[in-house]
Amino acid sequence: MDLLDKDFLINFFYLAFKEVERRKEDINKLNVFPVPDGDTGTNMLMTLKSSWEEINKINPKNIGEVIDAITKGSLMGARGNSGVIMSQIFKGMNIVLKDKEKITPKELSLSLIEGVSKAYKAVIKPVEGTILTVSKSFAKSFYEEIKKGKSFEESYFNALKEARETLKKTPEMLSILKEAGVVDAGGLGFLAFMEGGFKAISKREVEMEKIETKEAKLYQKLEFPYDVVILLKTNLDEENLMKDFNLNGDSLIIGKEENLIKVHFHTDNYLKLIDYFEKKSSLIKITIENMQYEVDMLSLKEKEVGFVSVSRGEGFNKILKDAGVDEIVDGGQTFNPSTKDILDAIERINSKNIIVFPNNKNVIFSALQTKELTEKRVEVIPTKSIPECISSLTMINKNSPVDEMVKEIENIIKNIRTIEVTKSIRDTKFNGTLIKKGDYIAIYNDRIYNSNDSPEDAAIISLKNLEIEDGTLITIYYGEEIEEERAKEFKEKIEKIFPNCDIEIYSGGQPLYFYIISLE
Amino acid sequence: MTKIVVDSSCDLPDEYFKEKDIKIIPLYLKIGDKFYKDGVDIKSEEFVELLKKEKNLSTSQPPLPDFINTYKEIIEKGDDIISIHITGRGSGTYNSAKMAKEEINTDKIDVLDSENISAGYGFIVKKVCELIEKGLSRKEIISKFDQIITKVQLFFTLNTLQYVYKGGRVNDVKGLILNVLDIKPILHMKECLPRIYKIIRGRNNSLKELSRIVIDKIKESERNFELGFIHLDAKKELEELKNNLLSKLQPKYHFTKIVGSALGVHAGPGALGVAINYLED
Q1: CA–CA dist B233, B45 (Å, integer)
Q2: CA distances from A19 to A11, A27, A319, A418, B204 (A)
Q3: For range B40-47, the mean pLDDT
Q4: A185-198 and A80-97 helices cross at what angle (nearest 10)?
Q5: Element holding A409 (H helix, E strand)
Q6: CA B93 vs CA A226, A322, A362: distances in Å
Q7: Do A121 and A85 touch, CB atoms closer than 8 A?
Q8: Which of A34, A71, B109, B216 holds its CA 20 to 30 A away from the CA of B278?
Q9: Which chain A residues touch B181 with a CB distance below 8 Å?
Q10: How confident is the model at residue B61 (pLDDT cuts 50, 70, 90)?
Q11: Of all helices (H) and strands (E), which one includes residue A114?
Q12: Spacing of C-alpha B221 from chain mean position
């Protein structure tokens, strides 16, 4: 029988790796488990690429050295769940093939069995219907065919067929796949790898019907959004290292490479995770990825209603995003965005219905103009201040139809009063009061209150002149010129003057206006 | 005679349980490795302090033997049992009670899911108790139970979302992670779980809104009704809300209770709510 040498394995790996590269996007599209972030193909490819680079670096002299390079490369470069699992498969193969000059196909099949078993052991809670199941089915079938005395080519071909059948059954094993209407992404990745490798064995085309790779449609809020990989050095064995490990999360995988250990985990608290391992070992490398971001970006779900808000100031931008604004239009120093700015924001949102909050009297007109320039349905709420938008978006039922939502918002903003505190830029007379250039002024609707002392003073004068019922929520958004400490002192003052009101304070970060204060 | 068994998350006045001889199976509070019986080892007054201090406070359902022993005691006296529990979607207690029944292997017990919590759960127990007193059979009560649970509503507001996030029992709230802005949600029981009814800004505004909701619901129903007031570390605010509501509404009966600690763990200090029990005329 022909023996397989290092050139075979290098050629095999190259073709396999290239096939994954070719089908990367197909694999990404399927990705829903354990986290639907659409990067399984990319992760696998990165892992394999790292192996390929390692092979080129060390220029191996025999099969043992090739598999060694593959293992080492994949362990160092492993990304994502399926990447880590691939690296464990190679690691298991390495146990069988270590130091071998050349190998028989039977030895190759045995090493795969060992690899799959290694992968199962590395995953703390193995889940069927994943790359594990598909790789197991391939390895088992390949080994059995060889044992029956079939040729290398025939055995491998039949194992591919078997693995493909298993892949098709993954939705039956894992309900999340069924819901999304897809087969497992990692499983397809493994199959692509093996199908690519087949080109090194046979000229025969892998002529099997194509597995449909429709896009997975799913949106979810992740319980454990951070994908963390920690490479560490320790004298402890795995059991002792993990003895007190009780953090919430999933997809725990531990791989060992001589005295280095690689831990992969999905968590909601990466600080605790790092803290745990820092106490037990010396950390070498940590990578943290927020998968929620990817999920959100990839969310294909069209929103029923999208929200555009004009804003100014870092703090306000953050709060508006928090409250559910999809697109923020920067009002600029003068709070005067162009119709095009607003229109662009409208078009960027994946929704046919858009509600626009101009948040300033002077912007309402440019906002209304967008209605004729887009095919989307645009509703402009005549909000005169940013706090009106913040409260509306926080309080409305976001599942309501647009018409109802607009009514709800109109009702909410009726109950909100806003005071803006700034500095007069010229001498002027207002309702008989002389206001000097440089005076601090608090503006409420068409009333102006002035003080030559401080913006806080002007604000307090205006508040005292407005009727404020007990229980009113007074929210203070302080501008970029006001230090946090000063704002807090101001809050305490207000609390003393209005002891029966709720007072909240946030950084709005707006220019020109020292304070924007809302009453509701 | 049919006896009622409940768990400690059922909020009704202590005297009521005594007077009607209702057996309470305590849920457990877990602090570190130690377990405490809710309402027995830890009284509600001590609990609030503990809740503010202990970061690792959690709850767990009563162990099977607690149910089995209580059930056996009652059956041995020749009585039978209706065992009513906190919503099975929020706790494993209902499930444990069912397992205990199977373990004893008897037809003398019916285990029911109140699909509610706190004073909402309390009013459901009260209704069942009244039907037993009227002389209805266990079978008749069971057949009416689905209807009974629809006649109770619970609305409550939280002063902080910290506890409800940590507890992870209100999925609805999870989707609402606000990083900067402080909000005061009003929750209600829907499909066996607490869900967001409305989001309000400002504590006083949320209390006002809670009153408004209760008044609206009662006016809408055009029925006689009873009210249950619950709170955790919000006595003064509750008194105000109660006085305001009682000046506008005439309930046939009302009671006030500190929220059981098993629920308090999830609701946190400042939780405050009103249960409405609509009466049949």
Answers
A1: 9
A2: 12, 11, 46, 61, 63
A3: 83
A4: 40
A5: helix A402-414
A6: 32, 36, 59
A7: no
A8: B109
A9: 319, 322-323, 390, 394, 506
A10: confident
A11: helix A105-122
A12: 22
Sign of the torsion angle spanned by Cα atoms A113, A158, A182, A86: positive
Strand order in the sheet with A249-257: A249-257, A260-267, A226-233, A282-290
pLDDT digits (tens, 9 = 90+) for B132-147: 999 999 999 999 999 9
How big is chain B, counted in residues? 281
- Upstream peptide bond of A225 is cis (omega within 30 degrees of 0): no
Tell me how far apart the alpha carbons of residues B195 and B208 are, in angstroms, rounded to a whole number: 19
Cα–Cα distance for residue pair A401/A408, rounded to 1 Å: 11
Q: What is the mean pLDDT of chain B?
A: 89
**pLDDT, tens only, A268-312:** 889 999 999 998 889 988 988 888 776 666 555 678 899 999 999
Dihedral sign, Cα of residue A306, residue A308, residue A313, residue A319:
negative
Which residues in chain B have their CB less than 8 angstroms from residue A292's CB?
none
Question: What pLDDT digit, counting tens, does each position of A324-337 carry?
Answer: 898 999 988 778 88
Tell me the C-alpha distance between A152 and A55, whole Å: 25
Cβ of B204 and A470 within 8 Å?
Answer: yes
- The token duo for A509 is 């970060």
Here the ipTM equals 0.85
Please tell me the distance from the alpha carbon of residue A483 to that of residue A318, in angstroms, as a whole number: 18
Q: Do A323 and B202 touch (CB under 8 A)?
A: no
What are the Cα distances from residue A253, in Å, to A118, A123, A383, A452? 11, 5, 51, 65
Q: How far is A327 from chain B (nearest CA, A)?
A: 17
Helix (H) or strand (E) holding A147: helix A131-147
C-alpha span between A69 and A101 (Å, rounded): 14
